[in-house]
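Why run this: before we spend reagent on co-expression, it is cheaper to look at a predicted model of the complex and decide which construct boundaries make sense. The entries below are exactly what would go into the expression plan.
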Amino acid sequence: MKKKVSIKDIAQTVGVSTALVSYVLNNKEKEARVGKEIAQVIRDTAVEMGYQPNQIAKSLKTGKSHTFGLIVADISNPFFANLARNVEDEAKKFNYTVIFASADENAEKSQNLINILTERQVDGFIIAPAENSQDQIEALLKNNIPLVLIDRYFKGLDTNYVVTNNYEASYHAVSHLIAAGKTNIGMVAYKTDLVHMLDRKRGYLDAIKDNKLLKAKTPLIKTVDFNANQEEIAVGIRELFAQNPAMDALFFATNTLTLKGLKSLNKMQYRVPDDVAIVCFDESEAFDFFYSPLTYIEQPLLEMGKKAVQILIKNIADKKSLNTQISIPSKLIVRQSSATVKKD
Amino acid sequence: MKKKVSIKDIAQTVGVSTALVSYVLNNKEKEARVGKEIAQVIRDTAVEMGYQPNQIAKSLKTGKSHTFGLIVADISNPFFANLARNVEDEAKKFNYTVIFASADENAEKSQNLINILTERQVDGFIIAPAENSQDQIEALLKNNIPLVLIDRYFKGLDTNYVVTNNYEASYHAVSHLIAAGKTNIGMVAYKTDLVHMLDRKRGYLDAIKDNKLLKAKTPLIKTVDFNANQEEIAVGIRELFAQNPAMDALFFATNTLTLKGLKSLNKMQYRVPDDVAIVCFDESEAFDFFYSPLTYIEQPLLEMGKKAVQILIKNIADKKSLNTQISIPSKLIVRQSSATVKKD
DNA sequence: AACTTAAGCTTAAACGTTTAAACAAACAAG
DNA sequence: CTTGTTTGTTTAAACGTTTAAGCTTAAGTT
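The model came back. Tokens follow.
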């Protein structure tokens, strides 16, 4: 086993001080006025000896790890996995390394992850914050740690964030259902006070109100727990139908809700879109294969990932920079599941 | 902004040396014979001052980063995203942090990632190796860097690895199709020499041979590029049908191939399983929603992730330990797409 | 009383870098 | 030739830890 070669080893073989080697390998020859010939020798020997800089030592000295943490709910959820991939790619362009972590919508886990990553001296965070994690975010801000919220944010907190236009997208999606002739539209969402979810509900509600569809039996919103299984969702849907047997459309607030919801509808023998039309927030590969291809809201994952990284890196470079708060529009992809269909 | 508090700060406020603080905070009081009372004072002050150890400094001193790299093809692919999640969870149990990276089945990117992570002083790697990356793996071995291959491995290389029983699973899946009465079975796979893919092909082929179904028109294997789009897969399938119009079943080698393949079949108006039965390797949420729920091979992702981490950590602790090579069985989940159906 | 042992603590070097400051030699200018 | 400037190089401290080795005092053992 070969020992790792350090700057000292190179210095020794070339016969110069470590300072010179450092200057050359960091392309600071100009500022440091290093001789042209010796610079070349140093460079060559470095290659010859297979030198790989020790980033840990570098970080310790410079106080920058060129690493940041990405905390999401669950990296195995396609929404976050795709986001993560886009973040990874964009980060690489800036020579940054990303450490992903899953907090499972759990504030305690989230705090734990923040601690671990802070100890690892990450230069900043991109976080899809869990409920009740507001104080954790505030603490980071107080410690002047660069940070960008993604997917969700906190109303009262002045932070960087990158989200999609949850309210408008929902409003638009529900309006689309109404335009298709649906008059009793239900919604299945998560039970949480996170802004993105509240916005989606508001969008639903306002669309209904603005179209004078707010009757005794509406709004038809059912909220379930983040870790609700399929059975609980089936129960929720059954309750919605009980509340208003005329329900002719369902708006699902996320892709996981949709997947479980569709399976439930299948089991209950409801037909889409004849018995009930469907629109949902976020996408899934599975939607293409549902017998009635789903109408869904496509989130701008690529843009969100890119922007978040760019904002974070700007913020790391200039900690005094003003907060950037952007909302990137989503797109409604209309397909069969929300089509106008003549009932009997 | 508060300055970060170091061991030195604690030492100063308590009025002791940094050594004492270090011993106490690392629970080495016994070995270092630290006084009971002062130890408590140190502990209390550390908490009071909000001390967070600097892992970077720790790593530099100890030579261990308590971090490892996980290199997969693409973190946004559900197969790898799920694997990643399991790896993350298991690693956390050992207080290890994971850095994920996507190599896109590209040896050059893979080498680049290995370099970056090596510079970051990861203690080891879990790698789903790309084609032509064998020499990169060999180089790591030569440098005595702990490493576990996952999903795939190299025949000639003595490394740790954790895979599923690709050959047997494929053999079993194809035998199942044969048992269901299919006699002209095609296969769509990736064009690569990676062992896992070769094994899946061998399994297919042997099942056909052993059942005396090897005729002039078989084997019906079509291979496509890793980044093949749907159109190319459609072409492949069309060619298979051209080669043998009697083809009555298709075996797809991965989930991405399946998804694109199913879309192609839909476009070409083939019905599953009546016109063509389907079985595929690996799963996807989408398979539940295909009109004819898919029969698939379920890989033991949880076990694979766990085992890989355990082996890696054992190897990090004891670099001389013998290589562990395990193959965890997959499970065939039989559903409608491979059902026996009377034709005409 | 003289010596050993134990207990409790400090010193200081080291990990692999970066970088300001000091130094030395060569050259230019008066 | 002094003095100043430029060019090329070294010195050494620092980043926040760990840990072997050393030091001091008190307590035990003859």
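Residues 4, 6-8, 18-19, 22-23, 26, 28, 32, 53-62 of chain B lie near DNA strand D (CB under 10 Å from a C1'). Residues 115 and 244 of chain B are 48 Å apart (CA to CA). Bring this page to Monday's planning discussion.
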